[in-house]
């Protein structure tokens, strides 16, 4: 309560001008190892336009990622850094990796209850709070990363997300995208629907429910625990993200087959979830800058994942002898039918669930129609010639 009163007091001192700071957000600042804050991003107070002294706000971000994990843990650090620079040191955020402050899967509760101020992680981890958080994380056979922004910005998705999360005292926003993911690592080949029977697989959220209905057992584990569980035989398979992150965790050392066709996560949407009280106590200019930075990080992370994944996949195949596999068409058809049934069941949970479901599916119908006319024929045509894509 004392910190909340301080936030209200400091917010009343005036907005200041933040536009110049938003441009400066691309420059990194050295970290003070003692305080966890950035040395040149502001002291105990900062001076806004007009000479008004504006006390800084110190916030805590908890993440679901291992410390310095490529593209996810590092992106959370960069997002916090850019907010501090863009607000001229007014908002200072200390980032905690999974288990540093709370376990990965307790990040949502920490923010909802006010014990932390921001979480950085995928919202399908919180399906135990409400089943429709899955729709804002990843829906199997659903929207891709770019299509997700279409739904949120132009299909009414953000308003529905805000309504859902507000019930838990959270303000959500997209801030990361992993791009098209992989189907996972397996210690046996999947040649038929029957091969899912008895399969124990690390896969959370909506994807986990598919595994259940296919006769397997889903397990939810944070990233830092997957390798050991797979190496000890506690699970038979795991999905994680894609080649870049999978190589970093060394799954090629403990699993034989690497499957493409990420039916379960066409792209994981990573969220920055703010404690709603903290968010509301920021002024309009600060909220606008944070939202703009979140959009920038979403676009940058998607570009980074696409670039890093291509290089990492070459390493996995050429240097480590990983065997790439693709799920057979009859298996994909069975998975898609099960996914459709599960999604519809989720949409019947309550009135808000139905509205989220109908809104999401309306956008999915639109993008399937448009992509079938535009993107898909182009991609097919581009593959006809090997001349493009070759260096001189």
**Biggest sheet character:** 6 strands, mixed
CATH architecture of the domain at 2-179 and 268-306: 3-Layer(aba) Sandwich
Q: Can you write the helix and strand succession as a string?
A: HHEEEHEHEHHEEEHEHEHEEHHEHHH
| Beta-strand percentage range | 5-15%
Structural class based on helices, strands and sheet pairing: alpha/beta
Average pLDDT value? 87
Spans where pLDDT lies below 50 across 5 or more residues: 1-52
Per the CATH scheme, the topology name of the domain at 2-179 and 268-306 is: D-Maltodextrin-Binding Protein, domain 2
Structural summary, described in words:
The chain is of the alpha/beta class. The chain has a domain at 2-179 and 268-306: 3-Layer(aba) Sandwich (D-Maltodextrin-Binding Protein, domain 2), CATH 3.40.190. The chain contains 14 helices and 13 strands. Strands 9-8-10-7-11-13 form a 6-stranded mixed sheet, covered by helices on one side. β8, α7 and β9 (217-219) form a beta-alpha-beta unit. α7 (205-213) packs across α12 (329-347) and α9 (243-249) packs across α11 (284-319). The longest helix is centred in the last third of the chain and has 36 residues, at 284-319. The radius of gyration is 22 Å and the shape is globular. Mean pLDDT is 87; it is low at 1-52.
């Amino acid at each position: 309560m004392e910190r909340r009163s301080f936030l209200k007091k400091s917010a009343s001192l005036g907005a200041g001008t933040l536009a110049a700071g938003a441009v400066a957000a691309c420059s990194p600042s050295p970290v003070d190892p003692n305080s966890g804050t950035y040395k040149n991003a502001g002291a105990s107070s900062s001076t806004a336009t007009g000479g008004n002294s504006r006390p800084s706000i110190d916030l805590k971000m908890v993440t679901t990622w291992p410390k310095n994990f490529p593209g996810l843990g590092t992106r959370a650090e960069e997002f916090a850094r850019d907010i501090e620079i863009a607000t001229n040191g007014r908002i200072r955020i200390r980032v905690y990796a999974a288990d540093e402050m709370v376990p990965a899967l307790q990040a949502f509760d920490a923010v909802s209850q006010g014990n932390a101020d921001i979480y950085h992680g995928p919202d399908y981890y919180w399906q135990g709070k409400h089943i429709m958080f899955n729709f804002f994380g990843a829906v199997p056979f659903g929207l891709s990363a770019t299509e997700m922004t279409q739904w949120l910005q132009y299909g009414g998705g953000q308003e529905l997300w805000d309504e859902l999360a507000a019930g838990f005292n959270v303000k959500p926003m997209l801030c990361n995208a992993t791009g098209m993911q992989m189907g996972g690592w397996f210690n046996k080949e999947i040649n038929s629907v029957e091969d899912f029977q008895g399969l124990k697989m690390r896969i959370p959220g909506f994807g986990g429910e598919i595994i259940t209905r296919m006769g397997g057992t889903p397990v939810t584990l944070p990233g830092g625990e997957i390798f050991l569980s797979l190496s000890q035989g506690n699970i038979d398979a795991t999905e994680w993200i894609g080649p870049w992150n999978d190589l970093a965790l060394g799954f090629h050392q403990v699993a034989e087959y690497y499957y493409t066709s990420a039916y379960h996560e066409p792209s994981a949407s990573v969220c920055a979830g703010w404690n709603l009280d903290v968010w509301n106590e920021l002024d309009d200019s600060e909220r606008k800058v944070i939202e703009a930075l979140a959009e920038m990080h979403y676009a940058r992370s998607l570009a980074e994942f696409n670039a890093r994944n291509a290089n990492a996949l070459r390493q996995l195949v050429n240097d480590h002898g990983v065997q790439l596999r693709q799920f057979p068409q009859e298996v994909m058809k069975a998975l898609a039918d099960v996914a459709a049934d599960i999604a519809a069941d989720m949409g019947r949970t309550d009135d808000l669930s139905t509205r989220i479901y109908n809104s999401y599916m309306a956008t999915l119908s639109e993008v399937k129609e448009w992509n079938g006319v535009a993107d898909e024929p182009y991609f097919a045509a581009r593959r006809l010639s090997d001349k493009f894509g070759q260096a001189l």
